[in-house]
Task: inverse folding
């Protein structure tokens, strides 16, 4: 404000000017001068003498002091001064605005400088941390390399151990196989061996149901341990070309007996025979259908099978199967039996099969 007022006064003073004052010079002695005055020239007046009316101008009302022409310069000066004051005021406001902007710019620059300094510090700190991380990464890489080398050595050792274990496994397998063979050999050496035989102790009789025969079964344990859970059966079988062979019938009977539940009370001790009596028969229809020829008669075989277990290995199944042929003396018909024929016990012959007499396992 004061700046604006001072500038205005200066401009007004410059426009109005200042009173002229004669400069005072210091007094000094003036030398004497000689002045020559020429005589005046004669006056020449061609005009008529003025009358008294013409010599008095008309009385004019004087203008106000502020409307006189010599005061016009004052008003112009005042206008210029006012315009200058307005210009100075606008310039002052602009200067104030520029000063505020400059102050804001300085504050912004200071803040930007502080932010830049903080950013620089953060960058330096981050660089430091990055360097530490790089160092840690390098150490980790070295550690990983060492771990890889150790793992490689361990892998080599494991491969060597695998080779040794493979060799040991082969040795162990061989040893296990040898032990199994020894165990089997021991079991076979100590296992029971049941040997069945059959004898006739009654005549062959025939009724409406077919022929029937009484037999006795003897079971001898030739092994060193008891045979337990024995299941056995004798069976008469009509032999004919249209029927399976006796060996096939024996195989079927062994499979059937092996699937039966064991008789726990049926035990055969070593060197002590066990006897059982059976009545075996044939169906009348089977006999009539499978004659050698019409009216010629039929041929009979007997299959005896036994399945048993071992006290040392209850999961094992052992068996023995025998085949016999039933007949008569040649003079009384040999191997042929007539339909409805009765044969006394003294005329009956039970002959073990000469080709497939026995199988055992």
Result:
């Amino acid at each position: 404000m004061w700046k604006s007022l001072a500038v205005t006064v200066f401009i007004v003073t410059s426009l109005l000017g200042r009173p002229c004052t004669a400069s005072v010079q210091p007094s000094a002695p003036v030398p004497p001068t000689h002045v020559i005055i020429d005589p005046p020239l004669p006056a020449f007046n061609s005009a008529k003498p003025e009358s008294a009316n013409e010599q008095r101008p008309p009385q004019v009302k004087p203008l106000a002091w502020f409307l006189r022409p010599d005061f016009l310069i004052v008003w112009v000066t005042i206008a210029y001064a006012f315009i200058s004051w307005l210009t100075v005021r606008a310039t002052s406001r602009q200067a104030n605005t520029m000063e505020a902007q400059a102050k804001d710019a300085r504050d912004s620059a200071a803040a930007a400088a502080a932010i830049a300094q903080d950013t620089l510090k953060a960058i330096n700190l981050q660089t430091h941390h990055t360097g530490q991380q790089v160092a840690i990464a390098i150490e980790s890489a070295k550690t990983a390399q060492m771990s890889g080398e150790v793992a490689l050595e361990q892998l080599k050792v494991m491969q060597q151990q695998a080779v040794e274990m493979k060799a040991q496994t082969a040795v162990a397998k061989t040893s296990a196989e040898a032990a199994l063979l020894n165990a089997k050999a021991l079991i076979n050496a100590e296992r029971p061996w049941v040997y069945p035989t059959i004898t006739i102790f009654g005549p062959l009789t025939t009724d409406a149901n077919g022929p029937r025969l009484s037999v006795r079964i003897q079971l001898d344990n030739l092994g060193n341990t008891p045979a337990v859970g024995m299941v056995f059966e004798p069976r008469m079988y009509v032999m004919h070309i249209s029927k399976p062979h006796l060996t096939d019938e024996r195989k079927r009977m062994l499979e059937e007996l092996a699937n039966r539940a064991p008789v726990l009370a049926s035990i055969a001790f070593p060197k002590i025979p066990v006897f059982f009596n059976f009545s075996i028969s044939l169906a009348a229809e089977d006999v009539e259908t499978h004659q050698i020829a019409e009216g010629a008669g039929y041929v009979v075989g007997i299959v005896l099978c036994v399945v048993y277990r071992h006290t040392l290995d209850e999961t094992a199944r052992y068996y023995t199967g025998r085949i016999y042929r039933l007949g008569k003396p040649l003079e009384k018909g040999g191997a042929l039996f007539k339909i409805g024929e009765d044969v006394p016990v003294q005329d009956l012959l039970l002959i073990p099969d000469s080709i497939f007499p026995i199988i055992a396992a």
The beta strands are 194-200, 205-207, 210-221, 227-239, 274-281, 298-310, 318-327, 336-337, 349-352, 358-360. DSSP finds five helices and ten strands in the chain.
